[in-house]
Automatic annotation (TrEMBL):
The keyword Oxidoreductase applies. The keyword Metal-binding applies. Its cofactor is Fe cation. Gene3D superfamilies: Jelly Rolls (2.60.120.10). Pfam families: HgmA_C, HgmA_N. GO terms for cellular component: cytoplasm. Transmembrane segments: none annotated. GO terms for biological process: L-phenylalanine catabolic process; L-tyrosine catabolic process. Fe cation binds at residues 335, 341, 371. This is Homogentisate 1,2-dioxygenase.
Length: 436
């Protein structure tokens, strides 16, 4: 019989949380006593090295009906469109690229989360624990008794359409467009769409775990606040029906039989667990004098790299906000950048691309490939009367990485790729006449 805890969440990014679905399931005074109440097993889940500094050390103790090792051997799982860095399918071109959204799955098909995963691009090397994989998901049916986890990296979900319930070993999370969720590396979960089809993006982070960006001179407030990150309360089910564990390991999928539900954690304590965040809680900092600020001021989460000042990946958003700069070109400026940028649109429109960039779509601008507003946007923004302006009905995001982002063969050849994307700049004309 399954037992469900109260539908509340624990608050605070990377805080030490403790939660139990049955009273006194958590041991008092130590993590691994000789005997645990309710005849549970103690099992630690470490998503950082044992010797990582205290501020970076991530681990949780779980108290479960059976230890995770009570399972069968792994065997290869059927091939999917899921890929992993390093990308060797084809050379990585420097071209600007843009794609239409993946179609929503209609009612005539039943596609679950695993079947609906497709990789758009990767960089780095999962085995060396650097870089990222960028995937899209679409589904309209439950995973049933299938359970998924990635040994290669933590998974940042950016939903674009629909609502879903995510069962994890640490409890349940409900997720909608406009929220994000992070599943730590190695944590098992199952996705169930609610009220129809779902669609969204995933950044699989092979590198250092995501942390909050530093505020620097902005001070103690602004950007994302720790208290707004929500962790699940303990929930478990005592179910003795067969399940299948699917593991993404070194870029390949493997399956193993499990004679019971893996969601049998009655209590847990620690700072490594799935969490979610509502992007509406991001406190935007922006210019009130002149010039368009760099997109780094919109960073929600970052995975640092070994090179100071650059990221393995930044997660950046462009939410509704006021623009009040004087004598300033307000859309994103033309630029060439050491960082590579993969963008997606959750809702509305993006201010530098009025046409062709639809919700659910995506674009790729690799390092030092020039890009910026399309011709019509440049003309309009250069000649508009300046006044306080609020960007509304918009929510875009960017995965920005210090490493080139290589599109997969699927991304290069799919009919969803807009092969005429470069044409949006063809209307740019010369205005120079030698006069001030």
């Amino acid at each position: 019989m399954g037992i469900v805890s109260q539908l509340t969440y624990l608050s605070g990014f990377n805080n030490e949380h403790e939660t139990e679905a049955l009273p006194n399931a958590l041991p008092k005074g130590q993590f691994s006593p000789q005997k645990v109440n309710y005849k549970l097993y103690a099992e630690q889940v470490s998503t950082s090295a044992f010797t990582a500094p205290r501020t970076k050390n991530r681990r949780s103790w779980t108290y479960r009906i059976r230890p995770s090792v009570a399972m069968g051997d792994f065997s290869p799982y059927k091939n999917t469109q899921l890929q992993t860095g390093p990308q060797t399918q084809s050379p990585c071109p420097p071209n600007v690229m843009r794609w239409d959204p993946l179609p929503l799955i209609d009612e005539s098909s039943n596609i679950d989360f695993i079947e609906g995963l497709v990789t758009i691009a990767t960089n780095g090397d999962a085995n060396q624990q650097i870089g990222i994989g960028i995937h899209c998901y679409s589904a309209n049916s439950s995973m049933g008794n299938k359970v998924f986890y990635s040994s290669d990296g933590e998974m940042l979900f950016v939903p674009q359409h629909g609502n879903m319930e995510v069962k994890t070993e640490f409890g349940k999370l409900h997720l909608s467009a406009g929220e994000i969720m992070v599943i730590p590396r190695g944590v098992r979960f199952s996705v169930t769409p609610i009220d129809g089809a779902i669609r969204g993006y995933i950044c699989e982070n092979y590198g250092q775990s995501f942390v909050l960006s530093e505020r620097g001179p902005a001070g103690a407030n602004g950007f994302a606040n720790q208290r707004d990150f929500l962790y699940p309360t303990a929930w478990f089910e005592d179910v003795d029906t067969p399940h299948v564990i699917i593991n993404k390991f070194c870029g390949h999928l493997y399956q193993a039989p499990l004679p019971h539900s893996p969601f049998d954690v009655v209590a847990w304590v620690g700072n490594s667990a799935p969490y979610k965040y509502d992007l509406k809680n991001f406190n935007v900092m922006n210019t009130v004098s002149f010039d368009h600020p760099d997109p780094s001021i919109f960073t929600v989460l970052t995975s640092p790299s070994e090179l100071e000042g650059t990221a393995n990946v930044d997660f950046v958003i462009f939410p509704p906000r006021w623009m009040v700069a004087e004598n300033t070109f307000r859309p994103p400026y033309f630029h060439r950048n050491v960082m590579s940028e993969f963008m997606g649109l959750i809702e509305g429109s993006y201010d530098s691309k009025e046409k062709g960039f639809a919700p659910g779509g995506m674009s790729l601008h690799n390092c030092f490939t020039p890009h910026g507003p399309e011709a019509s946007v440049f003309e309009a923004a250069s000649n508009t009367e300046l006044a306080p302006q609020k960007y509304e009905n918009t929510l875009a995001f960017m995965f920005e990485s210090r490493f080139p982002i290589a599109p997969t063969e699927f991304a290069l050849s799919t009919p969803l790729r807009q092969t005429d994307y470069i044409d949006c700049w063809k209307g740019i004309t010369k205005h120079f006449d030698g006069k001030i």
